[in-house]
Write a structure and sequence with these properties.
This protein is mostly helical and about 425 residues long. It is built from 20 helices and two strands. Helices cover about 75% and strands about 0% of the residues. A hairpin with a 2-residue loop joins strand 1 and strand 2. The termini are far apart. InterPro entries: MFS_Riboflavin_Transporter (IPR052983).
Amino acid sequence: MIIIKINQKCLIGAVLVKAGQALLMTWGKSNVYYYSYFKMNDPNLSITYNTLPIALMGIPLAVASVYSLKIADKIGYEKLIRIITLLQFISFLLALHADSYLEFIIFYLGFIGLGYALLAFPLLKCLWSHFSEEEGMVTGILFGVFGFATFFFVLLVTYIVNPNNEEATLSIQVGSQQYLYFSDVVAVNTYQAIKYAGFIAGSLSLAGSLLINQRKLEVAEEQELQVLTSEIQNIKITPNDPLLQVVKTKQFKIILGSYFTVFFFDITLGLNYKTYVLQKINNDQLITWVDTLGTILGSIANFVFGKMADQITFTVLLHKLLIIMSVIAIMIPISLNLSKDLFIIDYLLLSIFSKGITVILGPGLLQIFGKKTGADILPIANFSGLLGFIISALSVLLIVPILKFDGTFIFQGLLIGLAAYSTKKINQ
């Protein structure tokens, strides 16, 4: 008889929940199908529905993320995760019966996304409570599984909706930017894809939530010195300092700004991947496989960089990764216009290093600010990602019609370069 330890049980539960949440991250690779599907019955449907609701959702998602741990402290971590996964599944069922694209976005993306924001950090904190010396490793595992699940859902949706690899033949012009979408022959299959993917994702999250538990820390662990490497980082923090004081430090502001530039670029490309790439490479299954391979490599990178985060000084690792990320980001539009093969190489490199930057954030905050403060400050640090989420959606509406996607991505790559330069000042 196999006996599963309580920490292993929590890890399995976290993996299942995270795998279910991955469906949310396929939006940028499948929203062209959803738009095409609802445009069949609404010929005047505006392309802004792919971006404007996302921008409006950013504020409540940011608030939910920042206060998620406080809510979990009040009602209980396990209870919150189970309630959220159940409500997400109900929201998905309502999305199946949506009559308009806006209704679909509200239930499929809005409420499910709100749930994701509320449970992401409580889930991570539950897991960290069982692996106090291996936070980077288990964070890497969780993000890795998230990536593999994303690739599974992208393939599932793509091959149900477009099994014959039909080209996107219809178009709409917004300013100087042209958007392609699919005819009824492809779009009609979208409902089946939503149904199958949603049921699988919801079942995974619900099952995983039943296995989640939080280990109660000993008093000595709660009072553990808040700075494990503060002397290296030149940060003076005592165990009783409020989070507000941490937020005011130069180091935290630089980290926040740096991650904003990364998320700003990553989210803009992620939310518009097929919309953008189909203009240059009108081969749906090919660009799906490129993204799938990138997701697999990114998932492996999560494991590797997660382990590195336990062994290398965070600020040193972040600085080097930002430099690499800046060059790769600037090359995305350049490579796509020069050569299909060059773009594929650049995109795969992007998938690796962007995931590396993301996965080291949590362990890095623990390394700089100590375990308890680092865990508590993570939702606030994640605000940079949600701010990037909002600005990204607005940039598609305001900047892309002028600069096109090409100019927008080059501009964002330069911002990441400035962020890389600023990280040199963290230790000063």
